[in-house]
Amino acid sequence: MADIFVFVEHKDGKLKKSAIELLSAAKKSGMTVHALALGSGSEGLAEAVGSFGATELLICNADSLKYYNPEAYSAVISQAIKDKKPGIVLAAATSTGKDLFPRVGGATGAGVASDCTSLNLRSGNVSARRPMYAGKVSAEVGFSNCETKIVLVRPNALEAGTPEAGKTATVVNLPPPPTDLRTIIKEVVKGTANKLDLTEANIIISGGRGLKGPENFKLLDELAAVLGGAVGASRAVVDAGWVPHDMQVGQTGKTVSPSLYIACGISGAIQHLAGMSSSKVIVAINKDKEAPIFQKATYGIVGDLFEIVPLLTAEFKKILE
Amino acid sequence: MNIIVCLKQVPDTESKIRVKADTSGIETTDIKWIMNPYDEFAVEEALKLRDKMADGSLVTAVTLGPKARAVEALRTALAMGADNAVVIDHTDFVDSNAVAKALSEVLKKETFGIVFTGKQAIDDDCAQVTQLLAQYLNIPHATVVVKFELNADKASAKIEREIEGGSKEIMELKLPAVFGAEKGLNTPRYASLPGIMKAKKKEIKEYTFSSLGVAATEIKVSYKNFQPPPPRAAGKIIEGDGPTQAATLVKLLHEEAKVV
Question: From the DSSP assignment, how many helices (H) and strands (E) are in chain A?
Answer without folding.
Answer: 8, 18
